[in-house]
Amino acid sequence: MQKSKTKNPLDSFRDACRKHNLRVTPQRIAVHNELVKSKEHPTAEAMFQSIKKVFPNVSFDTINRTLLTFARIGLIDVVEGQGGPRRFDPNPGKHHHLHCIKCGKIIDFYDERYDKLKVPKDIENRFRVLSKRVVLNILCEECEKKK
C-alpha cells in the first residue's frame, strides 16, 4: 500500500475511499490493515483466512471483491501470474519482482536501471503504456538448496 509521508496509512486509505466514492466499512479497513502489515504478495484466500479470524462471517467473495476494488482504484496492484491464484501487491510504488518458478515466492527488488528501461517505439506508437515492471524468473535460495 502506498505510504504517505504526511498522513498515517489509515487516513490515506480513508481519503482514497472518499475520492472514489467508496464507503469505509469495517471489512475494507480490515483488508487495508492486513495489506499494510503484509511483507508478502498475498492471495485472496490468504487474506480471507486472516480476516475471518476477526470477522468470522465475512465471505471469501467480499475479500476478493475488496482486493479487486483496491486494485482498480490504485491502492494495490495485481501481480502478474504464472498459472497460480491471483496475487496482490500492497506496494504499488516503483519496484520489480523476482519470481521463484518452483515455489511461487515473489520478492520485491529495486533498481533504477530497470525503472529507466525504454519502451520500444513500435509499442509506444500502438499502445498507451501505463506502467512498467520487470519480472525475473528465478530459483529462490530455499529451492536452490533443495535441488
What is the CATH architecture assignment of the largest domain?
Orthogonal Bundle
The biggest beta sheet is recorded as: 3 strands, mixed
What is the CA-CA span between the terminal residues?
A: 34 Å
Unreliable stretches (pLDDT < 50, length at least 5) are none
Count up the helices: 7
Number of domains: 2
Gyration radius over CA: 17 Å
Round the mean pLDDT to the nearest integer and report it.
Answer: 91
CATH topology grouping of the largest domain: Arc Repressor Mutant, subunit A
Oligomer: single chain
Strand neighbour order, sheet with most strands: 4-3-5
Molecular structure report:
The chain is an alpha+beta fold. The chain is built from 7 helices and 5 strands. The strands form 2 sheets. The protein has a 3-stranded mixed sheet, with no helix packed on it.
